[in-house]
Amino acid sequence: MTPPTQELTTADVEAYTSGRLAATDPQTQRILDAALGAVRREAGWHVCPVRTDTLTLDGPSGWGGKRVLSLPTLNIVTITSITNAGNPVDLSTVVQSAQVGWLIKLTTGRWSNDWSSIVITLDHGFPPDEAADWREAVLTMIDDFTSIMVTGRPDSDLASKQVDDVVYKWGTVQGLPGAPPILEKYWLPNRGFA
User: Fold this and answer.
1) For residue range 54-102, what is the model confidence (pLDDT) as tens digits?
2) How many CA atoms lie within 13 A of 99 on its CB side?
3) For residue 102, which of 59, 111, 127, 180 sits 20 to 30 Å off, Cα-Cα?
């Protein structure tokens, strides 16, 4: 098996669906984009792959004595630069929590408590091998959803069924079929609020 690419691709979708969804079909890209958009909105961040972002954050509102800042990520790889109220921060004064991967602390000074006052450039996210279950859940979601579109809902999803005067009623479709238990572990706590 070849190692996964950084971002999920239509080739990954084609391989996962055994060719049912062709990599060259523009609809496959549309479905993949929609699925990634849905899971990333639920998670509150991009999750995978590792990428460089510049984040503009509101200052903390008193939590942790204004020395602790919660970042909208679960996996900080490297922090490149930080400005706090327009002033550059010496990165040697920033410590990342060993237990909680999205918290950083200033060892000297305080974070500004103003809105949009902290700008951080960092590499964050999980590499494909560390987020293999997340990638699998996205592909499962695509496969399940497109199977339902083609074959219809299975009888096991029926909430009621009446034969005479034909009434079939299915329960609601899950927003992320088959994937929620796996995806939930990648959700940001407090949805990115400091």
Assistant:
1) 999 998 876 545 899 999 999 999 999 999 999 999 999 999 999 888 8
2) 0
3) 180
Answering whether pTM is above 0.85, one says no
Q: Which residues make Cβ contacts (< 8 Å) with residue 152, sequence separation at least 6?
A: none
Cβ atoms of residues 54 and 90 within 8 Å: no
Comparing C-alpha atoms, which of 11, 17, 45, 10 is closest to residue 134?
A: 45
Rounded Cα–Cα distance for residues 151 and 17 (Å): 14
Spell out where 47-151 has E strands.
51-57, 68-70, 76-84, 87-88, 94-96, 103-106, 118-124
Name the residue among 42, 73, 78 with its Cα closest to residue 57: 73
Amino acid, res. 55: L
Task: Give the Cα separation of 24 and 80 in Å (integer).
Answer: 38
Contact 125, 50 (CB under 8 A): yes
Residue the block writes with tokens 């009621």: 160
